[in-house]
Each structure stands twice: as structure tokens, then as C-alpha cells.
């Protein structure tokens, strides 16, 4: 039996998963989907691309941040698993090399499967002479004029290469020197503006741009023989340091930092392993100051994010190789003949995307824009689509003379450039644009529409777990409500006044706000659940989120588990909590669902001795969300909506197709159906339910 004194020390690093390693475990679950034969072939290919894209961002931000700490001689262990920055980097390198090897193993298998469907990514040696001649003409006309070979010598220093660009290091031999062959080096960058692959004729056969360039490189170097070509790709530190204190114009500060992002310090070097020059690789490691642990010799093409585009091109003639098209259904809480405003006047409206249409959320803005009775629209925007109907509606509303106030979060990572663009567009249309708050990201999802009807002011409030992005609304699972309850309207008004003016944080009727209240309120609810359990023995907490990293909340979960409270956690990504540890977390179960849709909704449920409390939130239970972001958590009061959300949670907790559970050592394994047990894919079950509800109404 374990030592009780040790087990009660909830700061013991053995009870926690490291944040970065837990993220790698999540990305492995994404990669596992590429090997799942239940997924259609092209969808499996897309999971390879998602894995690659995730990994790029991980290196640009998380690995880069750890390297900055090492560079600054910061050796303090992180506060959960107790690993120093150097230890984290070593562990990341060890695990990630295994994952990348598995990624390319999967890609090779999928290439063989694609060949069976007469879809192929070829190499030059696979082509006929006639096809090579056609490609040579294409190279001469379309590629050659764009490329610029860059010599490397005393007069030509090593060039500053763009983040995530594919490059070729070329070693040349002077053909005129017979006895002593002198070698020279050059760099050729593969242009990002050209298509990454070329279709061969009218077939489903393709060849990569870099293979064409490599084959015809000799045309640039007359008088020299190409000795070797080494394809490589650099990933750079892309985290932004925004100096908000004293910045007169945050918009300009963001734009300045965006220009720097392309040229940050190198943090990863990928080299295509087909044929590379070891001397050149050592040269690159030296000139780029990259540690050998961050060198990845790749058994296949570099940068597999091109498979996103390839997926779309290949499916033109192969729709049988993708998921069946699912159409979001009309929301259950809105009658087919009602507008969103008419429905919300009668009842709180619950929306569950992508199973139910995102259309009513767009309608809130577009209908308000032309409604003569609407006086004001206020909204927070974190990420929106490239052709956002929300933005269009807000601009139209301002042009129609309505008071439009929009908080555009300029610090939304990797959407900064697009958000700068939208901020300028909205300002031109006459909207009042706020750029966020000093040192905090505004991540809350809230809209307030003020309407004057028969001399009476009405307030319509939308609160959600996801962004106002019509594109991702078809891919992410999110929830929201539209309410006209008076105190929600007052809370929304006070919230926007707090964001836009100079005032103390308001006292809300219903809302909890980070960085002030959410953690405190959440811990209070857990404490109350502990008390209920000690009195009644029926304590139960269910929490669904993207990530769980906040140590204070994790400790509180451990305390609740020690008191006997049953805790079910549905955590898609990072989870620093370890379940199933005797005396610490034996009453906690952790599962992760990775499937067709990206699980994005945040749901927090407390049994409360049968008087169930249920909250939705924009916030994950992460330290950054609790302390460094403006977030909102809001209660659900309507019994019918509570029932629907509780049913969603129940279905997810019974998923035995796409769910994995975490073991006490931090590893994850698929939940397997018991003999005779029905298979439950929670996402498909929820879609079928939305479809069947509509069918019943008709």
C-alpha cells in the first residue's frame, strides 16, 4: 500500500503530466486517426496534414519559448511535473522523433492505398520521356523565370530564409577544373506562391514542385556540375513580443511584430532523406545554430500540410473516399417559421453547432443591420472567416446609422494579420473598434443587440463557447444561447462598458468573468459539490474542455476525488491531471474524443444534490484562460436546455468508437466496446439526433 503522507502531497510531480508532453500525446491521437481504417482514405490523408500543421505551430510557439528560456539561463522547473526547460526540450525531441517517423510511415501506407484508387504522387523517374519533356517546357516557361539561385561565398552570406519555406542547398563542382575540383554552394528557395504539385495530363497523377525544380536545377549553373541537392525546411520562432505599455497604436505595433515573425530564430531543421549531403546538413546546423535534437531527417516530402489542398483536388473524382456530407440542421429551439429574434422573445434559444446550423448567429447580425428598430450592436471578435458575413453585417449596420461597437482581438495568435485587416475595414465603415485590453487577450464570445420596440428597450444577448466564424462552425463542436432575460442584458451591457471605457470590473448578476472570477467561482462550486457528497454521497462533476492545465483547479479536483466525488473529464487536448492514482485521483476518469469534428465546446456540470448546475464558457481550465484572458462563463437555467446538454455529455461519456481514456501513467488507449455492446460514435450520434428531430417536426 502506498505511503499516505506521500499520497496526500498534492504537489508531487508524479501526479501531473507535463503540458508540452501532454500536447504531443494529443497530436499522437490526431495521427492515430490516419491509421484508423474506419475513416475514409482521403480523410486519413487529411489527418496527416492536421498533425503536420499542429506540429509547425508547436515548434514556432512552445518549443521556441522553451529555447528562449534556456538561452536566458532560466532553469526553474515548471510547477506541475517539475521539468526544467532543458529537460522538457530533451523529452520533446525524444517523443517527437518517434511521432514524425510514424507520421511518414502512415503517409507511405496511404500512398500505396491511393495508388489502388489510381491516385498517385510520383517522382521524376516514374514518368515517361514524353511527360518529362512536357514538364521541362513547363519548368522553362513557368518556373525558371521566378527562381533566384543565391550563391554562398565571401561576397554572398547565407541568406535569411523565410519561416516554413522549402529550400534546396546545392553543391556545385567546377567542370573546367580537371585535377582539383573546387566546390561551391548555392541556395534555391522553392517559391511559396507556385502550386506545390503539378498534375500530369488529365490523370490523377501528380508530381511535387520541388522534384521538378531539383531535376532541372542544372539549367541555372552553366559551367558547373550539380554534385548534390539537399532539400530542407526551417521552422522559426514565431511568437510575438508585443510592447503594449506605452504603445500609442496597438495596430501599428502588431503590424511591426508580424513582419518580424518571418525571420525569428530557427528552432527546427527538416531535411528530406531521399538524397542529402551530410556535409551540407552539418553546415546548416552550424549556420542556423540548431541543436542536433532538432534535426529531422524526413523519409518523404517536406511539409505535408500540402495535403490539405491535395485532399480537395483528389476528391473531385473520388467523393467516395471522404466523409459523407452532413448538413447542419435547423435548430430545434427555433420554429421553421420564426426568425431568431421572434424565437428569443419567447424563450431562451439553445444552439449546438455543427449539428445545428450557425445561420441563426449570422442572422442576429444581418437582420439587426437592416432592422429600423435596432439601435446598437456590440460584439467581441476573436477569429472570423476570410469572407465573414458577420463582418459584412456589422459594416452594413454602421452604414445604416446604428451604433456598432466591436472588440477585435488583435493578439489572436496566427490570426493577427487578418484581424488587423478587419479592424481597419470596420473602422472605415463607421464602427467603433476596440483593440482589446492591455496585457490580456479578449477570448469571450458575446453579442449584445439593443432594440427599441414600442418605446421599450429590448436586449438580445448571444453567449457562446466558440468563435463568430461561419467556416469553422461546420467543423468545430460549439454551443451557445440567445436570451432576452433582463439581467443577462444588464450583464452584457456592463461587460461591454467595462471593455470600452474606464470603469471598475462590474458585479454581474449571472456572468463569471476571467481574469477575476471564473477560477474562484469554479473552485467554490467544486467545494460545494464536496460538501453535498459528504452529506448525501451523490457528488458528481462533469467538465468538458479543450485543455486542462491550471494547477489550482487540478488540486481541487484531486481533493474532490479524495472526498469521494465522482469526476468525469472530457479533455480533447492537453491534460496535466493524471486520473486513477490511488488515494489521489482514483475517482476521476479522463477521456479524449478525436474524430471528424474538432471538439471545442466548454461545459461544466455539478450535480448539486439533484439541483443541477450547468455552465457553458469560452474558457478552458488553463492558467492562461484564468489569469491572462478576458473570458466569460455563463449559467444555463432553462430545464429543457439543461436536459439537452446533459444528454450530450452522457453520449460523449459512452462513446466507444472515437474516445480514448487516460491511464494513471498518462498514456491513452481507445475505449473498446464490451461484447454485445452497441457501438457509439458520439459525434455521429449527435448528428443523427439533430436530423431525426427535424424529421419528426416535419
TrEMBL record:
Residue ranges constituting the Polyphosphate kinase N-terminal domain according to the UniProt record: 16-121
Positions with a binding annotation for Mg(2+): 383, 413
Binding site for ATP: 54, 476, 572, 600
Active site residues of this protein: 443 (phosphohistidine intermediate)
Pfam family name, one: PP_kinase_N
Molecular-function annotations in GO: ATP binding; metal ion binding; polyphosphate kinase activity
Cofactor(s) of this protein: Mg(2+)
Residue ranges occupied by any Polyphosphate kinase middle domain in the UniProt entry: 131-310
Reaction(s) catalysed (UniProt annotation): [phosphate](n) + ATP = [phosphate](n+1) + ADP
CC terms in the record's Gene Ontology section: polyphosphate kinase complex
E.C. no: 2.7.4.1
Residues covered by the Polyphosphate kinase C-terminal domain: 339-504, 511-683
An individual GO BP term: polyphosphate biosynthetic process
Top-rank lineage group of the source organism: Bacteria
EC class of the enzyme, as a word: transferase
PTM: An intermediate of this reaction is the autophosphorylated ppk in which a phosphate is covalently linked to a histidine residue through a N-P bond.
Keywords for the protein's UniProt record, in alphabetical order: ATP-binding, Kinase, Magnesium, Metal-binding, Nucleotide-binding, Phosphoprotein, Transferase
UniProt record similarity statement: Belongs to the polyphosphate kinase 1 (PPK1) family.
Functional description taken from the UniProt entry: Catalyzes the reversible transfer of the terminal phosphate of ATP to form a long-chain polyphosphate (polyP).
Stated name of the protein: Polyphosphate kinase
Annotated organism of origin: Oceanobacillus arenosus
